[in-house]
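Deliverable D5.2: sample structural annotation.
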Amino acid sequence: MAHYEHIFLARQDLSQAQVDTLAATATEIVEANNGKVTKTETWGLKSLAYKIDRNRKAHFVLLNIDAPGTVVEELERQTRINEDVIRYMTIRVEEHEEGPSVMMRKNERDRKRRSDREERD
């Protein structure tokens, strides 16, 4: 099976529980069509470079998927219909990276820097 990374941006006014529900729905779509979601990461509420549909921020979610292309087509079709998702992107990768993604490692590094700075003050 092919490996994909599916990232979607959810509206800023959604709660974290609603974003988790969106991720669970995407997982159900993949698994109902004989695919497998190997990793789900919620990157949190982040600022956008420019406004998208009057949103300055969005909730970012990453799904690592092992599935045939038809499953990805169905997932994208369902995502396109959903009004809570403002953008999405699916790319095919050779293999999924192990451990946390680059965005999660960046968040950890930033937290560590902030705590180090607070200790010095």
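Annotation notes: Residues 102-120 form the longest helix (19 residues). The chain has a mean pLDDT of 89.
The annotation will be released with the project's public dataset once the embargo ends.
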